[in-house]
Every structure is written in structure tokens, then in C-alpha cells.
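Hello again,

I reread your note about wanting to compare the complex against the isolated chains. To keep things tidy I'm splitting this into two emails, and this first one only covers the full assembly. Below are the input lines as submitted, including protein chains and any nucleic acid or small-molecule components. They are followed by the predicted structure of everything together. The single-chain runs will come separately.
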Amino acid sequence: MTDVALKSLTKSFGLVDVIKGVDLDIKSGEFCVFVGPSGCGKSTLLRIIAGLESATAGEIIIDGRDVSGAEPSERGIAMVFQSYALYPHLSVRDNIGFGLSLAKLPKAEIRTRVEAAAAILQLGPLLDRKPKALSGGQRQRVAIGRAMVRDPKVFLLDEPLSNLDAALRAQMRIELTDLHRRLGATMIYVTHDQVEAMTMADKIVVLNSGRIEQVGTPMELYNHPATPFVAGFIGSPKMNLFEGATAKAEGCTTYGIRPEHITLSRTGGKWQGTARHVEHLGADTIVYLKVEGMGELLARTTEDFPVAHGETLFASPIAGREFRFA
Amino acid sequence: MIRHGLTPRQRNIGIAATLVASVVFILPFVFIFFMAAKTKREAALFLFTWPSEWQLWSNLTEVVVFRDYMLLLAYFNSIIITVGAVTLLVLFGAMVGYILQRRPSGWNKLIYAGVLVGLMVPPAIVPTIWVLQGLGLFKTISGMILIQVAYGLSFAILLFRSFIATIPRDLDEAAIIDGAKPLQIFLRVILPLLRPVTVTLIVVQSIFIFNDFTNPLYYLPGKENVTVQLTLFNFQSQFQSQFNLLFMNILLVTIPPLIVFVFFNRQIVAGMTAGAVKG
Ligand SMILES: Nc1ncnc2c1ncn2[C@@H]1O[C@H](COP(=O)(O)OP(=O)(O)OP(=O)(O)O)[C@@H](O)[C@H]1O
Ligand SMILES: [Mg+2]
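Full-complex prediction:
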């Protein structure tokens, strides 16, 4: 069953086309991630779905109903903002219950629903504090709680983790995935971090300057990128992409090979280069090879094959792992 | 090394500043207080001396009952005008400031021009009186309230507008998603966050309006319309030979703004430091 459908959606700000025709189906209960570089229109697309921005043309269908003209509060969505957007003058309890009190629900029901959400998010002891007195991760949870109590069909999250430090971000990734499994609601999640996209998504939508570049599961995008853009965006470290003479020699316009799909050798191989820079990440080592007539080539090795700075090495692609984009 | 306390130089400057401030602000007040407590004969000497005979209470009652309790009527009128005008100023200032800041439209330029004109162009008394007469508001308390609102509104709008600019727009949008209507966003999200600037405006404007002498003099003639500052004017001739009563009157007129200021001063400071909205 489809939960959210976008049909030839476009959006212009004055003369600038920001969204240039987007068609997308998101299934009920799916964790869908919009990913793309800064300024590609991810937030705008999310805000159009939320109803905070009106589309220039196209349809938005949520749960089988065309909501293009509907108020945000009537769309069955809830949104978590990058800045959290908690009401500073209200306690955590009133922040979470704000929407319910606007809907004029009885006090007792608001109380039970707020406390149920707080229990899931481990916010119980913090209910009477003001947002000022919370840590970043706790504010994040309050923002999610405020979305949860509305019992929405679709959660919209705009870079919710980008204000947190690395360790907390990793923890919240897991918590959010757990929460998604527990609630079973559809979630649309915007990020420019491909690691978040790979680790959390059921479905990744790669956006590039207002257009959908490719849609697929994380592994589909990793193994079968449709365009050089997707190939370069998904996976870390970035895929090696070559155009010009190197690509011509391979019979294509763009040739790509991932660093983890290169084998290094001291005796012989396809390309010869010198190790310009070596990055030790612990289990892995990233080698930046300077290859004559080709440019820079990244390769990943393990500690079994120690590389010294300035060493001359041979690199070869693993067969069947190369990408040739026409 | 961390130095605690002040250097001798800093301390001397501090003492000097305190002395100057007390001479400028406190001595006149003490003088008024002494004069208000003296007998008629002693006050006529006009000396800065300790009253030889304390007559504070009898002077007080005499001023209050004077001319059919005119002073009480004046207090009543002044408070009505001040409270009414300040309430409208806060409400309209915040609403107009909010719309100007949040909803850019073609009209904004025109509205800004109006606001700036209101700030810069000095009011012309006689035409204003014509307008008031035309509207049937001349010599009425409500007319006086509207005059004070008109004089203060430009400043209030600009003050609120610049403060609202520091409130993240995400808050409005979060409230929209939560199902708030525009008026609810304003009343339940924006207005509570405007507290620091609202307190400032209330203090500044209420002291100004309560102490206003010229505008009530022009626009609110008539015995039944007297305001506290005008009682001085009205009593002056009668109190010419009774300076103790005149100074008692001055004392009574000065105290309310002083109380407002002392009381709200803490609130202003507390409001300013607690006003951090972001994050
Ligand atoms: N209100 C607006 N008026 C004009 N242009 C806008 C407006 N909002 C966004 N844009 C433009 O639309 C484009 C897409 O913006 P958007 O915020 O959707 O990017 P994004 O993908 O979310 O980027 P980021 O990862 O930096 O958040 C940008 O080029 C931006 O300048
Ligand atoms: Mg964005």
C-alpha cells in the first residue's frame, strides 16, 4: 500500500526552479531518506509535503487523499525540525502536549498521552523542565515526542541529528530506527549525510539540484548506482571517478571503482603510482595514490598490507566491481 | 593572578559617581519631602532644613480633600489613561510588529513609511484638536487614550518588530504543524516570548504617560478631566502662599512612577537575561 505519493511536483521561488518535477511513491511504514548535497531541495521537498510551502504544480497524496490544498495540521503529518523548535516558555510536558491542547482534548487524556510518549523516549523525569535546561539529545527527544503524541501517519524529519556530536548521533540513529520499528509509521528523513542514509533507510531517494537521481534500497544504490552522481555520493570513502582519457581507454565517459574494490601489490598491477598520503583509520588504511596520467586514486587496505609514505605501488580493480557510465 | 575587589582608582571613581548621583537625584527628593512636612510659615522660608514641626499627615489630608477631592479624581483619570493607552500600545505594537516582520508584502514599505512619519513628524496641536472635535473625542478620556497611543505606537512597533526578528521562524511553523491558527500562534507562542520587551515598553510608556503634562493640557481641558500633573497647575495659584501643600502635592504625584520603576526594574533586568530564545 502506498502511503505518500508525489506526482510531478514542481516548486519555483520567483524565477528559480528549486524542485523540477518529482515523482515518488513511499510505502506505508517505510523509512525513506532524502539525501543529497546542500541546496539540492531536500528541505523544500519536505516542507511541501508538510504543507509549510505550497507546490507550484503537482499533487501530494497522503494515505490515498489529495492533500495539496489542505492545512498542515489536517495532513496527518508531524515534523521534527533541525533546530528542534521547542517553545522556550513551555515545560517539556506542555511542549509535547501543545498540539493536543490546541485540539481541545480533555486534560486527563492529554496527560496520559504525553506521559506515554515520554515513557517511550525516557523523558519521564524531565517533564517539568524548560527546554533551556535540557541537553541537545534530550531536546531532540522532546521534539520527537511532540511529533509522536499527534499519532501521525507520516513523520517528517529534517536533519534531526545534525546539531548533535558524533557519539550521540550514532546512538540516536539506533534509537530512531528502533522507534520506527516500534511505531510502524512512515518516516521521511532528510539528511546530507550518506552514512545516516545507508544505516537507517529502507529506501533512499538521492536528490540532485531539484531532481530525483535514483531511488532504491541502500544496497541497490551501493551495488548498482545509476549515475556517476549517485556512485560518488553513496559509499565512504568516495568512489574513484575518472573522465577523459582514462574513461575513454575503458570505453565509457565516466569510469568508477570503489576504494574497497582495489587490490594493492608491490610486484605488478594495472596502474602504478606513489603513495602521496596514508590515512590510518585503525582496522582500515586509506592510501592516496598518485597515478601518472590518471590523477589521484584512493585505495583501501588492511593492516596486513602496511604502506609507507612515498612508496611505489601497483593497484588493480577487482573484476566485476568496476562501473562504466556511458 | 586574579584580582578581587577594585583598585583604589576604581573605588574613588565609584564614590565620586555615587556622590554626584545622590546630589542630582536624591537631594531634590529629600528637599521635597522636608518641604511637604513643614508648616506653612516654615515652608515660606524656602530653606533646606529639618522641619521643626512635622505636619506630614495634616498636610496630606489637606491636599487630598482640597477642591472636592480633586487629587483623587486626577489619580483615577491618570490611571485610566495610562493603563488604557499602555494596554493598547502593547497589543497593537506587538501585532503590527509581528505581521510586519513575518509576512513580507507589498504593503510593508507603505506601512514602514507611515511608522517612520509617526516617529519623525512633530504633531500639530490645533489640527489634532479639530480632528478630535470632528470625531466627538475632544475633552474625553478615550480621546486622550487614543492620542497617547498614536504618539507611542511607532516606537512600540519598531521595538517589537526588531525583537520578533530574533525569534526563530521555526517556532511559528512548529505551531502551524501542531494545528495553531494565526491568532493562536501570536497569543500562545509569540506573545509570551515578548515578555522582556513588553516589560520595558510598559515601564517606559507608563511613566511617560502618567507624567505627561502638555498633552492633557491641550487635549483634555475641563475640571472633571484633570490628571495628576495638571493638579499642580490648577493648585499653583491657590498654593502660592502655602508651599508646604504644593510640595506635598508634588510628592504625591512623584511617588507612583517611582514605585513602578523600582518594582519593574528587577523585572527588566531579569527579563533581559532570561530572554535568550534560541536553542
Ligand atoms: N524562501 C526561499 N526563497 C528563495 N529561495 C529559496 C527559499 N528557500 C529555499 N530556497 C532555495 O532553494 C534551494 C533549495 O533549498 P533547500 O533548503 O531545500 O536545500 P537543502 O537541500 O535542504 O539544503 P541543506 O542540506 O543545506 O539544508 C536553495 O538553493 C535555496 O537557496
Ligand atoms: Mg535543508
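For quick reference: Chain B has one domain: 71-273.

B.
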